[in-house]
Design a protein that fits this description.
Keywords: Cytoplasm, GTP-binding, Ligase, Magnesium, Metal-binding, Nucleotide-binding, Purine biosynthesis. It is an enzyme of class 6 (ligase). This is Adenylosuccinate synthetase. By secondary structure, this protein is an alpha/beta fold. It has 3 domains: 160 residues, 3-Layer(aba) Sandwich (Adenylosuccinate Synthetase, Chain A, domain 1), CATH 3.40.440.10; 89 residues, Orthogonal Bundle (Adenylosuccinate Synthetase, subunit A, domain 2), CATH 1.10.300; 164 residues, Adenylosuccinate Synthetase, Chain A, domain 3 (Alpha-Beta Complex), CATH 3.90.170. Helix content is 31%, strand content 19%. α2 crosses α6 and α3 packs across α4. Bound molecules: inosinic acid.
Amino acid sequence: MANVAVIGAQWGDEGKGKIVDWLAERADMVVRFQGGHNAGHTLVVGENVYKLSLLPSGIVRGTPSVIGNGVVLDPWALKAEIERLAEQGVHASPETLRVADNCPLILPIHRDLDGLREDASGAGKIGTTRRGIGPAYEDKVGRRAIRVCDLAHLDDLGPQLDRLCAHHDALRAGFGEPPVDRERLLADLREIAAFVLPFAKPVWRDLNEARTGGKRILFEGAQGVLLDIDHGTYPFVTSSNTIAGAAAGGSGLGPSGVGFVLGIAKAYTTRVGSGPFPTELEDETGQRLGERGHEFGTVTGRKRRCGWFDSVLVRQSAAVGGITGIALTKIDVLDGFDEVKICVGYKLGDETLDYYPTHAADQAKVVPVYETMEGWQESTAGARSWADLPAQAIKYIRRIEELIRCPVALVSTSPEREDTILVRDPFAD
Ligand code: IMP
């Protein structure tokens, strides 16, 4: 099976962009299957830096790219991102980009609702990206969504729009907001339809054809397993399934088509937004990790919370996410520390746990149990083989592998694509 799915094994921002770009060069097709423009993937190609939110990373190198039905698509964000990339010389055309025609749309009313709820939530807020992701998924599941295919039938949208507006008007009234401006919404949809429709297709057909033809498909996950709507730190999660299983449902290729699952994990941990984070460091060490790792969100610019590597969480992610191998990223951020710590278990009152409890109150209460290892003073930045790594760094990676019970397939040692140690080629499996 030559297909590969890349998913985040922590709370997102694990450095998926670089790994996906590295794999995309050898893929015949790159597919996004969940999330939306809440994602932020940074690709460094030579002198150029590309920041993608919604578009699959393959687009930068001209690899045919697909936005699957599991994504929630803001058509205005799509247009803006395509135009921004065009200014950098990357052109997305209907030949290189296909959008699933059964993909639900994010509308301005979803963005409104996301912001209104966050503003009204005080300390309980989720810290969303305010892009309308959650409200759009709610309407999808509530069978009220307007989908890409509806853009070709706007004259028949009447009853569907009635249902959608009735729902949102009630919610908006609760926030003291005026009802949805239906005429304006329809006019905006008419305008954007001309832009989106040339990209719209039943992409499941292309995918199944590619599979039958022996093509290599790369599934590009967004966010991470700990933000998964079912398996993450609920309610501080995103509104989609971020595990590899979602690649099948979110694209229209069955589960047997997913192949090797590469989980991306940072050599330490970060989180952006609210929610529990057992190994968070609110001291100088946390500050140092953030500075060395340039830990600011690609989408919102928010400062990321930082802490030591948590092997309990990544082991859990590997299990529920279906991860075959791990790509360990940003090991160079740990260069120069006298000692490094790994969380190997939790204390919850008198109990010792080797898994993350399900209830939010317990998740917030657990105290990490650490194993301390000697650090390394040499630089690992730019290493391309094990021989380039200091012995202590190798020991650290091997210990992680043992603790998470999952082999390391790749080690990434800088944002540059070639600065990668390949242990096991995911496409060769
Ligand atoms: P939403 O996806 O905008 O609803 O946000 C829900 C949670 O997921 C918040 O904690 C966000 O910070 C987090 N989140 C969403 N997308 C990303 C991402 O691409 N990287 C990291 N965190 C994300």
